[in-house]
Amino acid sequence: MWIPTEHEKYGIVLANFRGTVQHGLPLEIGDTVQILEKCEGWYRGFITKNPNVKGIFPSSYIHLKNAHVRNKGQFETVFPTEDSVITEITMTLRDWGTMWKQLYMRNEGDLFHRLWHVMNEILELRQQVLVGHLTNDRMSDIKQHITARLDWGNEQLGLDLVPRRDFGMVDPDEISVTELYRLMERRHRRHETPPQASMHHLFLQMKSMMSSNLGEELEVFFYVYDSREMQPISERFFVRLNKQGLPKSPEKTERQCTLFVDLGSSDLRKDVYVVAHIFRIGRMVAGEKKNVSNTQYKRPYGCAVISVADLLTADFKDDHLLKIYSCNTESEWYQIHDSIIRKVSSRYSHIGSNTGLNVSLQLLHGDMEQIRKDYMRLFTRNVSITKKLGFSDIIIPGEVRNDLYVTLERGEFEKGGKSVARNVEVTVYLLAGDGQVLKGLVCCGSGEPGMDEHRSFVLYHSNNPRWAEHIKLPIPLEMFRGTHLRFELRHCSTKEKGERKLFGFSFVPLMQDNGRPLPDGTHELIVHKCEETADLQDPAQYLKLPFSKVSLQPGNNQTIKNSKESFWIQSSLCSTKLTQNGDMLDLLKWRVHPDRIIDCLSKLKDIDGTEIFKFLQDILDTLFAILDDSPQRYGLKVFDCLVHVINLLQDSKFQLFKPVMDNYIENHFAGALSYRDLIRVLKWYVDRIIDAEHQEQIQQVLKASEYLFKHIVQSRRLYAAATGGQNEEEFRCSVHELFKSIHLFLSHETKGISPITHTQAVFLRSFPTVYCELLKIFSMREVANLARDTLSSLPALTHTDCPLQAVKLQCMAKTVESPLYVNPESRCVLLPVVLRLLHTHLQEQKELVLCANILTGMLTLNTPTTESGASEEVNLVMESLSGVLLRTILEVTNRPQPAATSLRLQYQDVTGEFVACLLTLLRQLKDKEYQQLLSRFPTKDELTSFLLQLFTVFRILIRPDMFPKDWTVMRLVANNVIITTILYLSDTLRNNFLNEKFDFKVWESYFYLCIIFINQPCLQLEMFPPSKRKKVLEKYGDMRVMIGCEIFSMWQHLGDYKLNLIPTLIGPFMEVTLVPQMDLRNVLIPIFHDMMDCEQRRSGNFKQVEAKLIDKLDGLLSEGKGDETYRELFNNIIPLFGPYPSLLKKIERETWRESGISHIATVTRLMERLLDYRDCMKIGEVDGKTMGCTVNLLNFYKTELNKEEMYIRYIHKLYELHLKAQNYTEASYTLLLYDELLEWTERPLREFLTYPMQSEWHRKECLHLTIIHNFDRGKCWENCIILCRELANQYETYYDYRNLSKMRMMEASFYDKIINQQRLEPEFFRIGFYGKKFPFFLRNKEFVCRGNDYERLEAFQQRMLGEFPHAIAMQHANLPDQTIHQADAQYLQIYAVSPVPENQDVLQRDGVPNNIKSFYKVNHIWRFRYDRPFHKGTKDKENEFKSLWVERTTLTLAQSLPGISRWFEVEKRELVEMSPLENASEVIENKTLQLRTLIAQCQMRQMLNINPLTMCLNGVIDAAVNGGLARYQEAFFAKDYIANHPEDGEKITRLRELMFEQAHILEFGLAVHEKFVPQDMKPLHKKLVDQFHVMRSSLGIQPQEFPAYVRVSPLHLANGSPRTCRTPVPNTISPEGGRIVARRSPLSYPAVNRYSSSSLSSQASNEVSNITGQSESSDEVFNMQPSPSTSSLSSNHSGSHNVNSSAPSSNRASPLPSDKHKHSRDNTCLSPRDRLCSGMFPSPLDPTQRMIPFQIPVDTALARCETNLPTPEMGSLCKNVRSLSPMPTARSPQKSMVPPLTPSPTDGLPMGSLASHSPARSGSYSSGISSLSRCSVSETCGIDLTQPDPPLPPAVPTEVPIRRGSKTPPPYSVYERNNPRRATPLPHSLSVPPSTDNPSLTAKPQLNRTQRINSEPRHRPTPRKVSQL
């Protein structure tokens, strides 16, 4: 039976449990479970991270933990009863674990490994805490370490800052908001601005000495040296090195590591160095012979230095190799370090490149206690401490030092009968009074123990040695008296004996006769002669002698004897017990000389503070003893001395002595009667403040008032304890009298700033400490009254710059923080004073930082659990400060933030503290308090003002920048307070601002606040991790839903007043409904029905609602809001909140249902596109999906919504995407959309996007130039020419010839690029997107895409699969069924398609270069086709061509390619089946055209080799695969087939003609092939010729049977050149062609459009004759003269000789490898438009005009030099050109004249003035793009054309548009040249209203195009816009 558990509530899973039993709950190791019930070894419960899933699990798998249960019962919550740090570690590490794995997935290896180490470290520390065997200090250190690591990890992972107190997490509900803010701010500031340490320490480790010639032991001395003062600032650190340069005792780390302690901030300068002096222990002279002397001497070796500033930037130990320098002259050794520092290189030299001192250095910051904690690894082993010379910057009380520092300076000695100078060595001894040497008290440096003696180093042959060697003598205080130093001077011999011979000594006693220690400074000691050590055995004999020359008495005989030799030392005493000051000793011994008391008291102020604090207790006892002895005589002097000593505590050097002073007063002070004298003298000073001329002494007295009152209070307590409380009333009266005097001087007012004002400020600074002392003897209320009266006596705010105001607030801040304010009894006395002062300063906006601190301190006492009595105080504060506090917050937040970091932090602190104070006050208010607060406003205007201010402040609190981003806890608390306040204020709004009291501003502000509240990021729970979301929901719930319900309720109460808010709140409500919270959406979406209904009733429609919704949707979804669920919610029938029906259901009941449903549908469709756009932009990659989505949205704004400003914005977004993807052609087409909206007018346009304010004309000009530039980059030069012409027209209209010239030159450069540069033909691919997983704009649609350069089908398919990684590629081309359409997946169907050009004009014209034709084959393409072969009926195994049908699918696009996108949707699909006969004709025709192309390329030397032609000829002639033409003949020329298919007679005839034509072309190709075939391929050629004859005979074709158009002989052509032919030749399109003309020409078939690059006309056979029958060489063939013939085979300038023609279909998009690296372009196309037509246009249908060239052709192509054209011919041609007559003459069949060249190609030409068949000439006048001209021939030439019979397919009339029936019209019209441009005004927001003032400059002359056309007769109508060209 399952029993509810009582104690087993919480546990940890010990092992994995699969949960395979019935109702089993799967568990994993480490999960925490909450247990609900138990039954026989089983528990029932749930995992805490997923409480919704409950199940059973074995109890043996669970480790139980003690837990605390809240709300026991069904909804109980369980918390483990463990240390809060352990709980935090557990929760944090679980969150980190998930994010740690994500770091690995994101390849953030560095943070991954660092976090791993930190997690392990935290787990180890957690184990130590759980064990519990730690001291309190150690436990505190570990917890601090844990919290530091947790904070670091949270910061690195972007998690929230955790508020803590004493290392434990704080519950925000249990403390006030102000205290929470201070905790958060303190942790935030500690991280941002770490405190600057005042103490620094230098760690040094001696590692080794590197040298190649070491053979002696070394001694190294390190110390810190100040080069500015030229003196050391630390003791020396002494290291002994062995002969290998390593420390002598490596096991004793204290002998190789040291810490230079107590360095001040002033010591970390560039001129402070670490100096190392190195001495060798060995022979006197290095390298000396071994037999000279075995005595070891200490000799100078070298010196090394390093600047301390070099160590400031390193946070870790760093090894340094210090260079060692030797002294050039030993006598200057004492200053070698200075020479190195100052770089006096003449005094030192580098010992060697291989010599160096290897040391490790690190700077540590903080006090020693902190250093020991932070750098425990340094102190785990012994480290010697090297102290600073003298006292540190901060003297530590209780420190005992008695160190005497002695420096051996120099000496002056005689030769002593020697021929050379002496080698002097000094031995130092410390001796007691009895002559015994004190053991171990001579220290050469830290790191080595003290020694009995010290031997100096020896300078070689120097009678005036300078050592500058430091030693320390740590003498105990009790041994100091009677101790003296003896310096024995010896000469060190260099002879064999190596003896040290004594020649003199000096001594100095350490204590003088008057009891004072040896004074600091330099001492010149007398050198006493002595040659025997025995003479020094009895110190009593020489101690009677004078020791220094200063102590010599005049007339002493020894003066003469010892005057020539001297020995100098320098001494410095650092002692906390001895003083060298005589005045100090006189004061302490005042009873010995009572007559000198006044003098001693006066001199106390001149004594150094260090000396005073050495003997602080003795001095204070002395002062109070003198006061008790004679208070009337010495009272004032003693008082002044006491004030001086007290004020010394203000010095930072002695601040740590305040506890010493407090300890003295509490435990050692014995002046029980002194309080009377202290009060008397203090009152005497206070009474004289107003009248005193000098305030300095009085200010010093008041500055010391804290400790004066401490002495007074303690004295009174001692007296009361001794006397049983006598004279209590007298004491009280004296204190009250004193405060009366204080009140009197505080109330004194002065004009401006006076000395009295400063005196008042001095007292106020110390006053809070005064009444804290009075609390020890007076009651709380009595002291509170004194404090209130004192603060109230201050003068009012008179001078804004008066320093007294700031001090007054500082005093108030300390008062609020004092125990006097914490006590409720005294707080009620002080609160009115504090509030009055705060109100005054906040009203004036002065001293806001102090005001914030005071208010925060006041409200910190008011926690949520405070007793109800605090509500009165809160009401009092709200009544006094609520209004001014709101105004202050508004004022502070509206100020610009200062630039300085410190000021900015201060600004943020002030804002945050005021906000925290407001939240604390509001948090304390209940319903009753709210009513009292609002009832205080007597008028509605005041209430309105308060509410508006409150709502505005709330909006400021919600701003993201109000708090740092990781302060989620603070934001949630603030939101909880805000929502509570809003709920309380809702009743106020309903009661006071509805009906006739309706106030629009209040309601608008209310709704805006609620909307901003819902949208703030910190409440978007969907973005939180699950654990964080759970915590927030448990503590606060989903506050968005709560406020949403309140919005709905308030909206329903508005009634008819909703109309006032509809235009304003549509956008904000839309923003709220985009929040992905279902309950919130269900509540708020019905509000839109009310809006639509109200608007319908008011204005009859809801256009305004619709417009606002659409405008807002774009902005919101672009910001990433909304999702697909929202679209469904908005559109579908979904049950909404409560009884309210769904939106569509509600709309269906209305009379305006149709328009309403249409509106919902429009919004839904827009949302679909916006969501797709947002999802694409989130990826961040520029691909086809992103561009297609943008195009889809752009067209929607244009066609369905007609919002031109949004349309233009998305035009530019698409343009930027194209530029980023380097789709320059598409970018140009996109920008053309905006260009077409503009006119050539002077209308001013405002600044928009990146465009400045300018006229419409200039903006359109700028757009034109940009488009031209991009078309040029995309190699779409034909379109550049069109735009250049339009710009040139404008420049010509304005007579801007400079720009006109540039434009014409630019246009000419584009012609050159067309002719000379190659452009690749892209592939086109059909792609279908099937399945419901695709975006809406792609779903179940098919598109045709223009591929990239060199992109084949496989590469395109891989690219698309990369863009849609989850898609499945379909392997067939059949249309999918509905199963695929409705599948919940993605399917891609991709295959290649062929373009079907619309314009056949250029492609069918002979003589047009191939690179021009190739452009029109792949540009402006609407239709594409795909052929699928199949067999119908029974397949003939012997000849499959009989049943081979072709299914041809033609796809028609909505817009032509290229365009504004690389792909467009298929609008129409046509399916046609081609019979086997038609298929055979097309195959033969395509192969024929391929042959023609290759032959032409070979003739014009456009082929690098002849192999392609060889393979093509071989494939046709020797068709081993499909049998060749014989198969077609067998299949379709058989009698059975002709009899069974009589309807195919014409088709069979056409097939026969195509075979004849192909046979002729083969013969022609073999002739060309023979001319160029290499020698090694001659056999292959011969084989091809033989097989050709066999094939021809098999076809039954004889040479004479070729039709007339293929049997033209070269004899018909004069001079053998078809270009100079004077006799017309029968043409395929002439009436003489008879039957041949009646058939469809191969050039008119669509297949030609892909392969034809030249036309093999009837002159082809003539060319064969020229090649095979004439005696011309191959060079002559390539150097034929140019002529106006249309044959490209004979024209060497019809196309560039170095440009390859287009390849067959299989190779069309894959040029030779050699071409791939030469040419790279985007094939782009501007749609063919109506444009200026050429006056020189051939009329192939006019028999009178055919084949009649100019006698001497004038061709622009002649302007370009032909490399193969002979120079004489050029000359003759030029002469003929010059002889032409400029006047036109009557036309005849044989002649025509050239008209004069007009200045501008835009000018009209006379009707019929020009006629020519030269495409080159035609191109020179029409920019070479005749295919872009839609003028008919009759319009151009002015000739009546008669249609021959049978007629050719007629040209498309210019009046009929090419495209019809498009649902979504293209972004620009095509072929609508006669359709006038519609007026397209810009949006009002983009235009600038015209000025009513008269313009200062005359406008440019306007010439309407229509007027110009009418005034100047033209035969080519001028288009009105670029898109119609």
List keywords for this structure.
disordered C terminus; extended; 1925 residues; alpha+beta; 6-stranded antiparallel barrel; 40 strands; single chain
Walk me through the structure:
The radius of gyration is 53 Å and the shape is extended. The longest helix is centred in the C-terminal third of the chain and has 28 residues, at 1545-1572. Helix 30 packs parallel to helix 33. It is of the alpha+beta class. The two termini are 91 Å apart. Strands 1, 2, 3, 4, 5 and 6 form a six-stranded antiparallel β-sheet that branches. It has a six-stranded antiparallel beta barrel with strand order 34-35-40-39-38-37. It has a five-stranded mixed β-sheet with strand order 18-21-11-15-22, with no helix packed on it.
Describe the global form.
Answer: extended
Instruction: Please tally the β strands and state the result.
Output: 40
The largest pleated sheet is described as:
6 strands, antiparallel
Counting DSSP H or I runs of 4 or more residues, the number of helices is 65
Q: Kindly report how far apart the N and C termini lie.
A: 91 Å
| Helicity, as a percent range | 40-55%
Overall SS class: alpha+beta
Question: Could you give a short description of this structure?
Answer:
This protein is of the alpha+beta class and 1925 residues long. Strands 1, 2, 3, 4, 5 and 6 form a six-stranded antiparallel β-sheet that branches.
